[in-house]
Amino acid sequence: MKKRTISVALSLFVILSLFTGCGGGAMSATDNAAMDTAAAPAQGWDGGEYSSEAAATGEAAASAVQPSAIRQNAKLILTADVYAETRDFPTADQAVQDLTAQYGGYLESRAVAGNEGDRSASYTVRVPQERFEAFLGAFGNTCNIVRQSQNAEDVGQAYFDAETHLKTLKTKHERLLALLDKSEKMEDIIQLETALSETEYEIEQYAGTLRRYDDLVGFSTISIQLGEVRDLTAVSQGNTFLSDMQKAAASGTRGVTVFIKTLILFMIIIWPLLAVAVIVLAVLLAIRRRRKARKAGDPAKGPQSPGGPPDGTPKT
Fold first, then answer.
1. Mean pLDDT of all residues in 205-224
2. How many Cβ atoms sit within 10 Å of the Cβ of residue 63?
3. Rounded to whole angstroms, how far apart are CA atoms 152 and 36?
4. H helices within the chain, ranges in order?
5. Percent of the chain at pLDDT above 70?
6. Per-residue DSSP letter, 141
7. CA 89, CA 113: separation in Å to the nearest integer?
8. Distance, CA of 220 to CA of 81 (rounded, Å)
9. In whole angstroms, how large is the CA radius of gyration of the chain?
């Protein structure tokens, strides 16, 4: 009777494992969908320099930011992509690091490339979710923001599903342990140990998923691309006709400057060819002048008669 009870219990756990496995496949699809991103409108800046006053202003804004009711009750993953320009690269680079520390975050990655005057850098910044908007506002006071997009992904349903599956697996794990203590047949023990190993693996997977969600929700991700330029890109401050004219004028002036610089560089590159062409042209002109001079120095020759001298005097 005891062996029969263990066999029935094993059959029930096999059926429960099948249902749990199906739920795991659905969870993986939900995880993939939760990581998609979208774009939002960008905002501009008129071109100031980083200073301690700007940082202090950003800190005050951070303390004034209050999470919305939706954010308090939802599992939101906040991300942002920013492209910024600066004339003072070392100051802007230091500002990113200072602001990250000031807002309680950390630099996940930082890469700098290029030479002085044409440097660029990329950063992955992680800041607490409640300071997400405050950090973006403070960083906007240090550089010229050309493009900026934000995204909020709600993973509440995926998080709830992972929690539910984790609780089910833990309950299954406890019951398998209880059955293993009562088992006497080697065949039953092997089956139970195999089921325990698979269950522990699934528990670790779902626990890891919850830890990843907690990290992404707790600390927002901001990707920053910073470029060093001589002339800042004109960014429209609105949709008015005047702002469009200002942007067009700034872009046109910069276009003329770029054209002149390109033309000068082009002339410098091809100057050896130009020098050779000038020398060849000078030689050809000299040859032509010599030929003209020879023709001008020779006396004119008139026609001669066959029987006498050209002046018509009689023959003696």
1. 96
2. 9
3. 10
4. 2-34, 52-64, 69-73, 89-102, 132-140, 156-182, 186-218, 241-269, 271-297
5. 63
6. T
7. 12
8. 11
9. 41
246 falls in which pLDDT band (50, 70, 90)?
low
Q: What is the residue type of 233?
A: T
**Cα 301 from Cα 295, distance rounded (Å):** 12
Please report which helix (H) or strand (E) contains residue 50, including its range: none
The answer, as to whether pTM is greater than 0.85, is: no
Instruction: Grade residue 17 by pLDDT with cuts at 50, 70 and 90.
Output: low
pLDDT bin (cut points 50, 70, 90) of residue 291 is: confident
> Torsion over CA of 37, 232, 47 and 124, rounded to 10 degrees?
30
**Which residues, 6 or more positions from 94, have their beta carbon under 8 angstroms from its beta carbon?**
50
At residue 167, what is the residue type?
A: K
% the chain with pLDDT above 90:
47
Angle between helices 2-34 and 156-182 (to 10 degrees): 160
**Which residue has 């030929």 as its token pair?**
291
Question: Are 50 and 168 contacting, i.e. CB atoms less than 8 angstroms apart?
Answer: no
For 207, 265, 286, 288, 293, the CA distances from 278, given in Å and listed in that order, are 78, 19, 12, 15, 23
Helix (H, G, I), strand (E, B) or coil at 105: coil
Structure tokens at 226: 């910073």
Between the alpha carbon of residue 280 and those of residues 195, 276, 277, 283, 287, the distances in Å are 91, 6, 5, 5, 11
What's the rounded Cα separation, in Å, for the pair 20 and 306?
128
Query: Does the pLDDT of residue 32 top 50, yes or no?
Result: no
Q: Which of 224, 34, 260, 87 is nearest to 148 (CA)?
A: 224
69, 108, 65, 112: which is closest to 92 by C-alpha?
112
DSSP letter (8 states) at residue 230: S
Report d(CA 7, CA 188) in Å as an integer: 8
